[in-house]
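User: I'm curious whether this sequence folds into something compact or stays loose and floppy. Could you predict its structure so I can see for myself?
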Amino acid sequence: FQTPKWLAYNSFSTYEEALLNIPPTRSSVLDSGLRVATEDTGSKTATVGLWMYTGPRFETNENNGITHFLEHMAFKGTKKRSQTDLELEVENLGAQLNAYTTRELSVLYAKCLSQDVPKLVEILSDIVQNNKFGDPEIEKEREVILHKIEAETNLRDVVFDHLHSVAFQGTPLGKTILGPTQNIKSLNKQDFLDYINLHYKAPRIVFAGAGGIEHDTMVLLAEEHFKGLTWELDVPVPEMNFCRFTGSDVRVRDDDIPLAHIAIAFEGVGWSDPDRIPLMVASTLLGSWDRTHGGGVHNACRLAQDFVFNLQCELMHICTSVSELDVERAKNALRSKLLLNLEGTTPISDDIGKQIIYNGRRIPFHELDAKIEAVNADILRDTCYRHLYDRCPAIAGVGPVEQLPDYNRIRSGMYWLRV
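Assistant: Here's the prediction. I'll summarize afterward.
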């Protein structure tokens, strides 16, 4: 374990001083529109990658699933390197290549020794700009994805796919990440090239890094290796259309599954909304529980005993009668959670990429901490009252869900008839 530089700077500094000692995030915008953002932590390792503003939210009904398919094709060879050569080159450097897809983001990143950053940047640029999309590789990954869709072993992902499908029905956010089977069977090389030509544009991409790296060096590397990423579009820019939230439910009963998997959701706010911080405090106050956590009944709220009833009671309590002591406890827990989530170069670079995409800048932690500190019981109650009290939830259930209360019964529990 390596002590972060901002913490080792002065072991006796106050909490506020320690926050101010966290290395700043530097950012630049190239002529092409590509944004470069870095944090130099002084460590011997680094994480660099590309955060691309594309995903199922920008897909059509005909190509839904293509972003995830492209993730599978990322490491299958380029015009300069075969798949074997690519794997050997990365392995010889002791580096790691990874990728993931969300409904709004496609991310490709590498973790390596700081001295190997220039080589990994060249490899990443080759993958993004020169993928060969060979027919044998496409067919192989097609079978992998189809098997993944058929197996559906991760019930949490299944539940959240159903939840999105009803909460955002009829909108792009209702699409799944994997896509429907018929699309996966029909997507081809030309579809990939057309999608890349439309979405892989410099203004929609953040080149982020964290670790033992210098910002000016990263800017030079970006200018050298990402010349193929331009801002020019042959068609109109893909729009970020509003996705309405619909209170509704879906239940997939399967008594062969040992446990019921249930999700209840309410319409939230965007990254830059001022209500986001109070809602994060409320989420922390609500807490979480798992049978593997151990501990007593005060380890979290009473969700495990009677899920729906106690969830609604806890939500109504937060909306109407939460105390200052509870809020202070939640604020401290949220601070700890956010700081612990930034241990290591990969979480830091991921946070940089997402914040630049959604906020246009990375909010310094001392500024975020001040916003958390400003939340009090009145603000928390007012915020939760606006977003949770007497609001229609979206509900998804998979498994033995026969005893899940009727939707109208759950909806009626979202307000209290009290004087």
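Summary: The beta strands are 25-29, 35-40, 45-52, 96-101, 106-113, 205-211, 248-253, 261-265, 394-399. The mean pLDDT is 90.
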